[in-house]
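Section 5: illustrative case.
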């Protein structure tokens, strides 16, 4: 179980997300990635250190005011770039996840029958497709996230963003830590307070 950080603000949050992931490095991890909503969902993932992800971000000139980041400790699927988070469904929904989805195989079969294609071996990718599936009907990221987590058995902290609603970030947790950081006209999520300490000290610890 590794690190999550996310931010929604009126400024470029990419430096904050990368700094947050660096502050979570001490927990151990095998790969790192971020995704931002900015004229499409843009993603950089790398196996190895956060520094390697940062080099990729610099090379691609990634910026954005809404985004999520992750350091992964692989539990389902090998240590590869394709298995690194965030996971994306249909270029519209991006998800980061700490924990383990115990019923991921059943959900994978169900989603495949609905036409979803998988590009990773992770348990996490089912969450991205589930949110996408429910968002199609609900048109609301909060409702879609609520419906998706009802299908999950296991332990999770998740952060979700959608291309279709650049003013919203959703999150949920069960059995894994997750908190919301409240700033001035900007808000954050993190698996650990240390990830967002430079941005705010006003924190809400979430119930499951
Ligand atoms: N189970 C997920 C994976 O293997 C998340 C692992 C984690 O908590 O970093 O990708």
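Designed sequence:
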């Amino acid at each position: 179980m590794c690190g999550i950080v996310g931010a929604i603000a009126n400024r470029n949050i990419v430096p904050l997300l990368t700094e947050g992931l660096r502050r979570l490095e001490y927990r151990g991890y095998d790969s790192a990635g971020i995704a931002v909503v900015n004229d499409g969902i843009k993603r950089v993932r790398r196996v190895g250190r956060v520094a390697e992800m940062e080099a990729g971000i610099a090379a691609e000139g990634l910026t954005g005011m809404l985004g999520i980041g992750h350091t992964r400790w692989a539990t389902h699927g090998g240590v590869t770039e394709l298995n690194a988070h965030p996971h994306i469904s249909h270029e519209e929904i991006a998800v980061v996840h700490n924990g383990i989805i115990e019923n991921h195989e059943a959900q994978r079969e169900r989603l495949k029958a609905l036409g979803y294609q998988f590009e990773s071996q992770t348990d996490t990718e089912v969450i991205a497709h589930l949110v996408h599936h429910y968002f199609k009907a609900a048109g609301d990221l909060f409702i879609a996230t609520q419906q998706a987590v009802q299908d999950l058995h296991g332990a999770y902290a998740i952060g979700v963003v959608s291309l279709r609603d650049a003013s919203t970030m959703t999150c949920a947790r069960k059995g894994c830590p997750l908190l919301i950081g409240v700033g001035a006209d900007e808000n954050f999520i993190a698996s650990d307070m240390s990830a967002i300490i430079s941005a705010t000290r006003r924190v809400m610890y979430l119930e499951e």
